[in-house]
């Protein structure tokens, strides 16, 4: 969603930068270190007392075994130092895997922003100072609070606990403050739908930092239900039962995965049928659109082989023979692409592009079946239709590029 949206916004003329916010500080990271440490002890045959909360996935055991091979002295280290090493190793390895998967998935992040760096750089302190300056923070019971009730929240929120530790909210406020300090006029966050209750709080924080409400937006992404032979695949990250993005893309391909994810409004639930996504049939949406482009490419190759060439540059007079309702409908629909792209940018809605491509592909397939372009009785009509299909092919390529999907010339 984020990668496609960035492509669309750039296409519409905006200066866009993409960032991945790395949650490498706080409780979950300590839990990661603990989980790897315990698995390392188990791997070495040492007694382990399993806490109620820890990460159970097999990938944790793999990380522990790998770390023990690299650092056999791990278990002779003091427990705190050993867990810290496990945390750092796990973070680096998992992040490297994420980067590889996203590169394969064609999802570009120009900057990888560390939560820990906010604390080390003083960004948290600067954000706290801004809140205080604007009258939105106060001290109570040894803790620092954000006065969110003054901005419509049901209660005030803790930023720094009485023991000196920071809440996630504090880091998030500091991150957004840092972004505005770097010159961004508009910040778009992309979160899972399970964070919907957090969005109003973050909006309040942005306003408390002195920004206008329209300088910030949150897009909530519904979780995807993967179906295999019509049956949902049960997943739980902490229990270690899940399908990774790499698993899905290996199974059905990057193109099918991206197109399917972008077919609906982002906050609408999505059932992703893995079997359908692998089919080379008109029932498969990405195949339906890509095949339209491949058909046009094949037609242009055959025309070239037969010595039929379009003049360069093209001129409007060439299109004069286009007069049937199907000619005009296809021409108008291709011409509508720019409006669709601008609308998708303004509404932050990539699904407008995927829906448009489905409609354009449908018109193309029907048109292709009705009008044998290279067998046209009138050479002028044949050339006009060849020019029209060449334009439609370009539009299909442009639209698929906005979705990060390839436009094959043969299928």
List keywords for this structure.
Rossmann fold, 3-stranded antiparallel sheet, 3-stranded mixed sheet, 16 helices, 10 strands, mainly alpha, 411 residues, 3 domains, 10% strand, Isoleucyl-tRNA Synthetase, Domain 1
Kindly summarize this structure in a few lines.
The chain has about 400 residues and is mainly alpha-helical. The chain folds into 3 domains: about 15-220, Rossmann fold (3-Layer(aba) Sandwich), CATH 3.40.50; about 225-280, no CATH class; about 285-400, Orthogonal Bundle (Isoleucyl-tRNA Synthetase, Domain 1). It has 16 helices and 10 strands.
Helical proportion? 40-55%
How many domain regions? Answer: 3
Could you name the CATH topology of the largest domain? Rossmann fold
- β-sheet strand percentage: 5-15%
Write down the secondary-structure element order.
Answer: HEHHHEHHEEEHEHEEEHHEHHHHHH
CATH class value of the largest domain: Alpha Beta
What does this structure look like?
The chain is mainly alpha-helical and 411 residues long. 52% of the residues lie in helices and 10% in strands. The strands form four sheets. The protein has a three-stranded antiparallel beta sheet with strand order 3-4-5. Strands 9-8-10 form a three-stranded mixed beta sheet. Strands 1-2 form a two-stranded parallel ribbon. Helix 9 packs across helix 10 and helix 12 packs across helix 15. The two termini are 26 Å apart.
């Amino acid at each position: 969603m984020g990668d496609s949206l960035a492509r669309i916004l750039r296409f519409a003329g905006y200066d866009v930068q993409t960032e991945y916010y790395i949650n490498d500080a706080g409780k979950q990271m300590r839990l990661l270190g603990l989980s790897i440490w315990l698995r390392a002890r188990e791997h070495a045959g040492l007694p382990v007392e399993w806490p109620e909360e820890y990460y159970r996935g097999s990938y944790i055991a793999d990380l522990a075994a790998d770390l023990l091979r690299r650092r056999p002295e791990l278990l002779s280290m003091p427990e705190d130092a050993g867990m810290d090493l496990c945390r750092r190793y796990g973070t680096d390895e998992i992040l490297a895997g994420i980067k590889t998967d996203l590169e394969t998935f064609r999802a570009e992040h120009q900057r990888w922003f560390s939560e820990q760096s906010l604390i080390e750089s003083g960004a948290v302190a600067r954000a706290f100072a801004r809140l205080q300056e604007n009258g939105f923070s106060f001290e109570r019971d040894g803790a620092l609070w954000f006065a969110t009730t003054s901005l419509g929240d049901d209660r005030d929120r803790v930023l720094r606990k009485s023991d000196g530790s920071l809440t996630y909210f504090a880091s998030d406020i500091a991150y957004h403050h840092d972004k505005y300090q770097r010159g961004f006029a508009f910040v778009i966050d992309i979160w899972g739908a399970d964070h919907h209750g957090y969005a109003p709080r973050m909006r309040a924080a942005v306003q408390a930092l002195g920004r206008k409400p329209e300088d910030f937006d949150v897009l909530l992404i519904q979780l995807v239900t993967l179906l295999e032979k019509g049956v949902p695949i049960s997943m739980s990250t902490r229990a270690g039962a899940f399908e990774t993005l790499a698993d899905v893309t290996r199974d059905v391909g990057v193109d099918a995965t991206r197109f399917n994810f972008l077919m609906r409004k982002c906050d609408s639930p999505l059932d992703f049928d893995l079997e359908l996504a692998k089919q080379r049939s008109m029932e498969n949406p990405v195949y339906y659109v890509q095949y339209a482009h491949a058909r046009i490419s094949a037609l242009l190759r055959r025309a070239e082989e037969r010595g039929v060439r379009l003049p360069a540059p093209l001129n409007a007079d060439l299109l004069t023979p286009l007069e049937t309702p199907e000619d005009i409908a296809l021409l108008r629909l291709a011409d509508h692409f720019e409006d669709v792209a601008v609308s998708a940018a303004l509404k932050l809605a990539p699904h407008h592009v995927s829906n448009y491509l489905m409609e354009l592909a449908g018109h193309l397939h029907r048109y292709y079946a009705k009008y044998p372009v290279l067998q046209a009785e009138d050479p002028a009509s044949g050339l006009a239709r060849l020019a029209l299909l060449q334009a439609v092919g370009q539009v299909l390529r442009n639209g698929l590029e906005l979705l990060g999907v390839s436009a094959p010339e043969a299928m």
